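[Meeting: bench + compute handoff]

Bench side (C.D.) handed over the final construct sequence. Compute side (W.E.) agreed to return the predicted structure before the next meeting so the bench team could plan truncations. Sequence as handed over:
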Amino acid sequence: MRNLKYILIAAIVAITLSSCGYNTMVSKQEGVNSQWANVENAYQRRADLIPNLVNTVKGYAQHEQETFTQVTEARARATQMTVNPENLTEEAIQQYQQAQGQLGSAIGRLLLIQENYPELKANQNFLALQDELAGTENRISVERNKFNQTAQDFNSYIRQFPRVIYAGWFGFKPKGYFQSAPGAETAPRVEF
């Protein structure tokens, strides 16, 4: 009789936990963590391409050492900055994005060197790397958008009643989002 009582209590607890959405919260949280890994992977791809781009350009522009140093330092900072998937707060994502933004800015300066070196524009290695970089930036954008969608799905799920109660009990917290860099709402001015 006593064993039946424990089995009945265990069954009630199991049914209650399964109906509270705990398993779905775990699944959605893992989806956010997985998508964060995809974002980091896209950024890592860019960081891995940079040494090739720098070495290609260095061959043509030996005296642009300051730009090369800035790119190398920005790459080092960007690859050292990590965010724990369990701590995907707005602030943590913003710091990560800031480090990546500095790297993107340094790459932009590196690509401007080509204007001073017409023969660099025609170099097939440089053109191929430039295409790879453009493709990588697109991949980063796609992965960041997917991350925001996954985080939004998770956040809205854990904030709905009555799951908001269970989410609090089990320690599920909303995830942060990627946001545009300050000034991104202003279109760049192109002059020829």
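W.E. noted at the follow-up: The mean pLDDT is 77. C.D. will use this when planning the next construct.
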